Amino acid sequence: MWSSLLYIYLREIYLVPPQQIFRFMFLFAVIFTVLIGITYAITKNMELSGLLVFLISMAMLTNQRFFYTVLGISLISLVGARLIFLVRKSKFPESAPELIISSVVFTMFLFLIFTVGKMTINIPRANTQPADALITSPSQVNRPDIYYIILDGYESADAMKTYLEYDNTRFIADLESRGFEVSKDAFSNYPITILSLSSSLNMDYLDKSTKDIKEKKEWWLLSDSMKNNRVQEILRSFDYKIIEITAWETSSFGENQLHPYLIETNEFEKFFIASTGLTYLDPLLGEIVAFPSFDMHRKYVTSGLEMIKAKSKEEGPKFIYAHLISPHPPFVFDKDGNPVNPPYRYNTLDAMEYSGTRQEYRDGYVQQVQFINHNILDVVDEIIINSATPPIIILQGDHGAGLYTDLNSSEKACINERFSILLAVYSPTAPKGWMAKDITPVNIFRSIFNEYFHADYELLPNRQYFVSGGQIYNFEDVTSRIFSTCNISPQDVFTK
Ligand SMILES: [Zn+2]
Questions:
Q1: How far, in Å, from the CA of 293 to the mean position of ligand 1?
Q2: Ligand 1 centroid vs 491 CA: distance in angstroms?
Q3: CATH 3.40.720.10 fits 144-493, yes or no
Q4: Distance 396 CA to ligand 1 centre (A)
Q5: For labelling, which of 36, 189, 244, 411 has a CA lying 20 to 30 Å from the CA of 262?
Q6: Could you tell me the distance, in angstroms and rounded to a whole number, from the CA of residue 348 to the centre of ligand 1?
């Protein structure tokens, strides 16, 4: 069982931190013991119960590849052993097949634990420096509630018009009529979520903190700098309550996280469930356990919106960080909020890895934008009504859509599409125009702390960095290409 677990982990090793496998390892050990106990009580035969439990594990806790790998190696070993016995003309022992299968699984386990260990132990992490303490003290400033709402993959109205032929100006006008300032040409600093959020929450570019891990591909080397990000650290020192609403463990601070499920699963557990027979338990447990499915995805989005509203009633000062995976794929809502189930197995892949056709991407994205527009306006209205002192609300895309973006090569990526983002800020107590018109996410909290907490952060120059081929710490400066609309066709990006 553990071999299968490590085998499946190895496929996701770049995305998922190793500590996420421990809970399932423990759980499987418990299940194993209980199953052996039960089957032994029934059969009174240790060998038979061993076999039964082996079969149950194979059916429920492995994926096909693992199954065929074990089967393949076992058969080869078995035939080999038979031949050796044939050549020596000695009798083939009856217990040999079982012994061989056990040794194959055990050898695989050793091999896997060695490989996973080598890839995860003692590798350097991104080393973000803690923020300098601000000179101002909490009592000297007003402390408005701050809402940092990330709408994953939400791009600017201009980009939507150019690449999706969709006119989103009505929504922008709705925001402006509520007092938001919307940057018309807003660009993210990075093209993928983990980099974008890690940078904006640490108020800095990532080249310094990741210079020792340039060649690495593991996303989770940033998890420490997400957990101890400077923004929450500063706000904590100003006695803010930190509240997190995120469906994605890697982007979380690991504290005060709100979940819609009684039993939350981490990313590894979701991958594991999705690729094994455990996925069939969804109808049985799906209401209380976060089973990876389009239903789950919808629940994270709708409950995320509800939780922001509910939390806005609580006393402040508070920092609410909400990361909603929408309008980013999968496209699971139509424009009226009705459920849509895409015709492929649940995943959250974007850009050239998106599982549908480019027409489905275009249509699905546009519908989901309309759905989220409507709902986020409700959320904003509710926050404003519930706030005793006017809050700060930041609505931001962490990057744009991915219809023209191949994340394997900056040449094949539409930089203008991928970096264009929605960036709207509500801050009625600050003087109009206080935030630079061309602000990028790296400077948002620098500006807020300067304006509201009398801090003295210099604003960093606006830069855009592309990463390709999975080497997410190998940054390529593409700032000069940011305004040029692309002449890449989606056919070059999408195979379907
Ligand atoms: Zn994203």
A1: 19
A2: 22
A3: yes
A4: 11
A5: 36
A6: 10
Distance CA 465, CA 419 (A): 9
Helices and strands: H and E segment counts in the chain: 17, 8
CB within 8 Å of 3: residues ≥ 6 apart: 66, 70, 105, 106, 108, 109, 112
Are 374 and 170 spatial neighbours (Cβ–Cβ below 8 Å)?
no
Distance 398 CA to ligand 1 centre (A): 5
Supply the pTM of this predicted model. Answer: 0.90
- Domain range annotation of the chain: 2-120, 144-493
Separation between Cα atoms, residue 390 and residue 88, nearest integer Å? 87
Rounded to the nearest angstrom, the distance between the alpha carbon of 192 and the centre of ligand 1 is 6
CA of 178 to the centre of ligand 1 (A): 26
Residue 473 CA to ligand 1 center (angstroms) comes to 16
Q: How far is the CA of 71 from the centre of ligand 1 (A)?
A: 39
Task: Tell me which residue of 490, 470, 467, 486 sits closest to 199, measured CA to CA.
Answer: 467
Distance 21 CA to ligand 1 centre (A): 24
pLDDT at 1 over 80: no
Q: What pLDDT digit, counting tens, does each position of 51-95 carry?
A: 888 888 888 788 878 888 888 888 888 888 888 888 887 777 777
Give yes or no for a contact between 484 and 416, defined as CB atoms under 8 angstroms apart. yes
How many angstroms separate the first and last alpha carbons of the chain? 36
